[in-house]
Design a protein that fits this description.
Elements: H1 20-25, H2 50-69, H3 78-83, H4 92-103, H5 110-115, H6 151-159, E1 178-182, H7 194-197, E2 202-206, H8 215-218, E3 222-227, E4 242-247, H9 252-263, H10 269-272, E5 290-292, H11 295-306, H12 319-330, E6 333-337, H13 369-382, E7 385-387
Parallel strand pairs: 1-2, 1-6, 2-3, 3-4, 4-5, 6-7
Helix pairs in contact: 6-9
Subcellular location: Golgi apparatus membrane
Family: Belongs to the glycosyltransferase 29 family.
Protein name: Lactosylceramide alpha-2,3-sialyltransferase
Length: 392
């Protein structure tokens, strides 16, 4: 049996709803919902174990430190290098001074004559530049200040050199020669001295300081590149416009490396293990293009620097200081470019070819860069050398 509720129809024009009473009397129909079954989760599954948590934290910490520290040691990218090509020179005064110096005549014995007033001048003249077979010198000190204990390696290296002494182009023939020692300092970046550097008779560079890509500031030619095995450039391009490579001996094995490079006979795997970084196996230069720097230059340079140092003892100078003293033996006028570390500005560029900052120099303890800076400043003040980049 069906029971009908009383229906009331009202005028819809007044806005009241139809079937009003029916809506009130109707019994709501119960609605049944399907109950969701929520699985019970073990809280232990949401968390890492103590060991996994420690490992993850260490990886995260290493990643953060790498992101902060590694970019400071990476070379500048191509985009940054190319964008700098349109920049103006950092110091037009220094650039004009360099141009004026080159426009004048070369002054014979200029550097040696201006070196005499210095108290250290006696130890900086008449030093042999390269090791020769016909000059038997007692090696009282071990490398790098001498060659005691390296006689066998030295004999083999000299036997592989067709011309172990001064090459004809560097022998004294009465002509006046200008030298420039190109340091690796960041002060060279943006100097626009490249075309000036290329005008010097002898251009000395250090270790693996690059030339291709940096010609605007550093020049394009190399007369002598001072290196030790771990610092030798690996790219063959760096040797394309190089006249000579001179080995600075820091250990006996360095002489064995030089013999290997000249004779094209590779070193043994065991010998290579004693180098602190990978060394190059081949340098694309003829045997007559190699020399061995005389350790007397290193020894005498160290003795002079000792006068500026706070601590006493045998001092090992940097290649930069060694190159300056070598230049004083070879040239009438000596100029410097890219020298001078300013430790007061740790954020400044350390090298002209990479983004490493000056603050990293505080960690090194091998060389006394403060003593070297005082020494070079005295040379500049006496007029014995000219500082082209103005950081000394």
């Amino acid at each position: 049996m069906v029971t009908l509720n009383h229906l009331t129809v009202e005028d819809a024009d007044d806005g009241s709803p139809l079937l009003h009473e029916a809506a009130e009397d109707a019994t709501p129909t119960p609605v049944f919902h399907r109950q969701r079954v929520i699985p019970k989760i073990d809280s232990r599954e949401c968390f890492l174990s103590r060991r996994e948590n420690l490992a993850f934290s260490l990886l995260l910490l290493i990643g953060c430190y790498s992101a902060i520290l590694i970019p400071a040691y990476l070379p500048l990218d191509k985009v940054a290098t190319l964008s700098d090509d349109n920049q103006h020179p950092k110091d037009l005064v220094l650039l004009n001074r360099s141009a004026s110096l080159l426009s004048g005549p070369c002054q014979p014995r200029w550097s040696l004559n201006h070196l005499k007033p210095l108290s250290c001048s006696a130890g900086l003249v008449d030093i042999p530049v390269f090791v020769q077979q016909d000059r038997h010198v007692p090696w009282d000190l071990s490398p790098p200040l001498g060659l005691r204990g390296s006689e066998e390696h030295l004999a083999l290296a000299l036997a592989s050199l067709p011309q172990p002494g001064l090459p004809p182009s560097l022998r004294t023939d009465g002509s006046c020669r200008r030298c420039v020692v190109v340091g690796n300092g960041g002060v060279l970046h943006g100097s626009h001295l490249g075309s000036h550097i290329d005008q010097y008779d002898i251009i000395i560079r250090l270790n693996n300081a690059p030339v291709p890509g940096f010609e605007r500031d550093a020049g394009s030619r190399t007369t002598i590149r001072l290196i030790y095995p771990e610092g030798a450039p690996h790219s063959e391009i760096e040797y394309e416009k190089t006249t000579m490579v001179a080995l600075v001996v820091f250990k006996s094995l360095d002489l064995a490396w030089l013999t290997s490079v000249i004779t094209k006979q590779p070193l043994s795997f065991w010998s290579k293990m004693w180098f602190w970084r990978e060394v190059v196996d081949d340098i694309p230069l003829r045997p007559e293009s190699f020399r061995i720097l005389h350790p007397e230059i290193i020894h005498k340079t160290g003795q002079v620097l000792q006068k500026y140092a706070l601590k006493q003892g045998n001092m090992v100078p940097t290649l930069g200081a060694i190159a300056v003293v070598m230049a004083l033996q070879l040239c009438d006028q000596v100029s410097l470019a890219g020298f001078g570390y300013d430790m007061r500005h740790p954020e400044a560029r350390l090298h002209y070819y990479e983004s490493m900052r000056m603050g990293t120099m505080k960690a090194q303890v091998v060389h006394d860069v403060s003593a070297e800076k005082l020494f070079l400043r005295d040379l500049v003040a006496a007029g014995a050398v000219t500082d082209l980049t103005g950081a000394l």
